[in-house]
Structures are given as structure tokens and as C-alpha cells.
């Protein structure tokens, strides 16, 4: 009921013309429609960027990406029919530094909290933070296991340093193990992973190996966010 009231309040301030034959969001508790998420995203993105003394704009570089993002998170069939995506897969979002990859997913995350849209929520963790925890934790396998389960956004993959595991391996690229484990979770349980990175798929192969690149093709919708830095 709380979720329904939250969405109804937004609709009062920002009504939509859904057209004949389409169901209003008032009749849905667990899902939000694509046009409504687009409106919420536009509202919250302006606030988010303003808090950083920046201006949110939709342009030729991010328009198609934001359409895909909203269609994906509302489980809109158009994500598959128009964008040739797969709603059962996660997201690998790559592009130059500062184009808004992390910010876009952070805004989706904030919308989920603010409007109690639990189906949109996912934890966000920086890859460098995972390495830091691995370096300080005595039970290192626990860290690998912890970040191998459940839906997660792994932010800035490829920027993290090698981890220290001097008693067994010396220096270790722990995300090879984490991504392999998350692949198994994806195959067996449908667990989704969301990744942002400055690395292309070819650079992912160079850093983490051919096997991980193959896993990415199976696990992810691969989305590129073009443009210059918005920072």
C-alpha cells in the first residue's frame, strides 16, 4: 500500500497520457511502466546532478541508452524487440570516464528507495572496495563467496588493483573468481549482475581472460554510453 501511494503521488504531480487499452500504474503494485520510470528518472536525475553543481541533459549521446535502461528495469518487452536485448540477463555498461554510467544506475537505485519500488533495487559496490576487504579479511574465501551471491552492481570494473593473497597466490586478480562464481549463479539461479566499466569487451578479455569474455556474452546485455565527460 505504501508503494502504491508513493506512485500515485508522483502521478498526481506528473500525470501520464497512457492512451486507450493500457493499464494505469494504479492497478499495479510490483511494477512501474516505462514512461513512468522515464519521468521519475528525469525528475531525480535533475536533482542528482544539481547536487553536484551539474545540469542533467538528454542528448544524442545518452538518449538511446536511457531508453534502453528504463525499458530494461521495467521489464518492458520493447527492450528485446526494439533493442535486441534479453531481460533475463544483467547489464555490462561501458564507455569513457565521466559519461554517466555510474550516475545512471545510482539514480535507478535512488528511485527504488524513494518510491519503494523494491523490484528496481540492487546493492552498489565499488570493485576497489571489494579488493580492500579481501586484503584485510583473514578468511579471504568468504569475501569471494559474499560478492558471488545475489544481485549486485559492481562499479568501475577494471580500475581495481590486484589483491594481496601472499600466503597462497601472491598477487591475485580476484574478480576472475568472483565473475566465474557469479556466472554459475546466473546459470543456476538467474542471478543478475550490473557492471560499469571504462573497459571495452576486448579490454575485458585482455585483463580477465578469454573465458571471462565468453561469460560476459552469456551473462550481459552489453550497452555503450557514448559522449564526453559530464563531470
Note down, in words, how this protein is organized.
This protein has 231 residues and is α/β, with parallel strands linked by helices. The protein has one domain: 3-Layer(aba) Sandwich (Rossmann fold), CATH 3.40.50.300. 47% of the residues lie in helices and 13% in strands. It has helices spanning 2-13, 34-50, 63-73, 78-81, 101-114, 127-136, 140-146, 174-189, 201-208, 210-219; strands at 90-94, 124-126, 152-157, 163-165, 170-172, 193-197, 220-224. Strands 2-3-6-1-7 form a five-stranded parallel sheet. A two-stranded antiparallel sheet has the order 4-5. Helix 2 (34-50) packs across helix 3 (63-73), helix 2 packs across helix 5 and helix 9 crosses helix 10. The model is unreliable at 16-30 (pLDDT under 50).
Describe this structure in a few short sentences:
The protein has 231 residues and is an alpha/beta fold. It has helices at 2-13, 34-50, 63-73, 78-81, 101-114, 127-136, 140-146, 174-189, 201-208, 210-219, and strands at 90-94, 124-126, 152-157, 163-165, 170-172, 193-197, 220-224. The protein has a single domain (2-224), classed as P-loop containing nucleotide triphosphate hydrolases (Rossmann fold, 3-Layer(aba) Sandwich), CATH 3.40.50.
